[in-house]
Amino acid sequence: MVQQDFARTVVDVLKSDSNTIGLAVAGSWLTNEMDEFSDLDLILVTKEKVSGDLTTMLHYANRFGQFLSGFTGEHVGEPRVLICLYDNPLLHVDIKFLTLDEFRYRVETPFILLDNDGQLKAILEQTEPKFPYPDYQWIEDRFWIWIHYTLLKIGRGEFIEAFDCFGFLRMIVFGPLLHIKSGNLPRGVRKVEMQLPRADLDLLLTTLPKYSKASLLEGLQNAVSLYRKLRDALYSAAIARQIETEDRVMQYFDKIKRH
To answer: What is the pTM of this model?
Structure first.
C-alpha cells in the first residue's frame, strides 16, 4: 500500500540522520484497518527537540517525499504534530515530533519501524498506554446547558449554528459514550459506522436533522433521549445528576416547541 511504501522511504531517509533515535507508526496501521482512504501517523523521536521549531519540522517533512504543504496541529491540541500533504501519490501524513522522554506517554502502543540502539523498544516494555476516557460528571454538569444553548439558536432561527451544536454533541458526548458502551476506545465519532451495533448507530443517526425548525427540534429531542439512555447504561450512582437544570431546560424545550 502507498502508506507502507511511504513509511519505508522515511526509514531509509532517517537511517543516516544523526539526530534520529527512532521512528514508529500509529493509527490504523496497528489494527490492520488501513485502506486507500487512510492517512499515515508517524512518530519521529529525536535526540534534540524538534517540535516548536517549524522550520526544522518542515525541513524533515520535505526530505520524505514530494511535499506539498503542511501545518502544525494546534487546532487539535497537538502542536508537536505536522499535518502534511504529499503528492505522487497524494497522501495525508501526520508526523509527530517527540523527544525520548515524551515518547513514554502515549494513548496506544505504536509499531516500531526504526529503533537505533533499541531505546524505543525498551520504553514500550517499561510503560503502558493510557487512552483518555471522558469524565461522566464533567459531561453531566454541562449537557443540559448545551441543550439550552442549542434551543436558543433554534428559537432565534440560527439553524446553521444549531447544526454545529449537534456536531459538537456527537463528537464530545454521543460518539465516545456509544463507543464505550460497545467496548471500543472513545474516539469521538471515528468509525462509528463500522464499529457500533446497528441499533446504536441508528440512534445516533436520529441526531442528524434537516434544515427546518421542526426537524432540528425533533433531532434535539432524540439527542436528549439518547443521552438519557447512555447515562442510565454507563453512569454509576456516584455521578450527581443535574436534575433541577434538566427539568428547567426541558420546560424551556416545551416552550420553544409551542412558539
So the answer is: 0.88
